[in-house]
Amino acid sequence: MPMPYYVSPEQMMQDKAEYAKKGIAKGRSIIAIEYVNGILLVAENPSASLYKISEIYDNIAFAGAGKYSEFENLRKAGIRHADLKGFMYSREDVTARSLANGYSQSLGTIFSQELKPLEVEILVVQIGHNGQANEMYRISFDGSIIDERTFAVIGGKSEAIQALLKEKGFTQPPELQAALSLCITALEQIGSQKLSLESLEVAVLDRTRDGRRFRRLTPADTKQLLAT
Amino acid sequence: MKLPFLPNHDGPSFFDFLIAHHPALTPVGRSGFLQAQGAAEPMRGAGSMSVPHATTVLAIKYQQGVVIAGDRRATEGFQIAERRIEKVFKIDEYSAMAIAGAAGPCIEMAKLFQVELEHYEKLEGVQLSCEGKANKLGQMVKANLPMVFQGLVVMPLYVGYDRKRAEGRIFKYDLAGGRYEESDYHAIGSGGKDARNTMREHFLKGLAEPDALKLALLALYNAADDDVGTGGPDLVRGIYPTAKIVNATGITDVSDQQIRGIYDGLIATRRSKEN
Question: Domain A27-227: which CATH class?
Answer without folding.
Answer: alpha beta
